[in-house]
Specification:
5 helices, alpha/beta, about 35% helix, 5-stranded parallel β-sheet, about 120 residues, Rossmann fold, about 20% strand, two-stranded antiparallel sheet
């Protein structure tokens, strides 16, 4: 199953990571780290998050993530899907509220497997 395949990957990026502890971008970033994944925070509004360098986009990461967990609105997500496709990323984990038909169509065109589920639920 696609969820298990994604969860077997070790290098993740959280697009929309934030230092706001009430937001999913924070909770997901922290939870993935607690689960033992190598996780890169991606958000152009921060220089660092939880003491780690925060990156403005996927292309600026020191290595290509195997899974991108997206916690941004679909209108911002289109750019993320374009970039992920250009980098050859195969798994895009879409949190509830991040999905649009346009985004899913683009991901399919780019050959990206999409998962529509909450990682906080699936990652227990």
């Amino acid at each position: 199953m696609i969820i298990e395949q994604a969860m077997e990957r070790n290098i993740w990026a959280v697009v929309g990571a934030t230092e706001n502890k009430d937001k999913f971008g924070y909770k997901i970033f922290r939870r993935l780290k607690q689960m033992g994944y190598k996780v890169y925070p991606v958000n152009p509004n921060y220089d660092s998050l939880e003491g780690e360098k925060c990156y403005p986009n996927l292309s600026s990461l020191p290595e290509v993530p195997e899974v991108v967990n997206m916690v941004v609105a679909p209108k911002h997500g289109i750019k993320v899907v374009e970039e992920a496709g250009n980098l050859g990323i195969k798994y895009l984990w879409l949190q509830p509220g991040t999905v649009s038909d346009e985004l899913l169509k683009l991901a399919e065109e780019k050959g990206i497997e999409t998962i529509q589920a909450c990682i906080l639920v699936e990652g227990r």
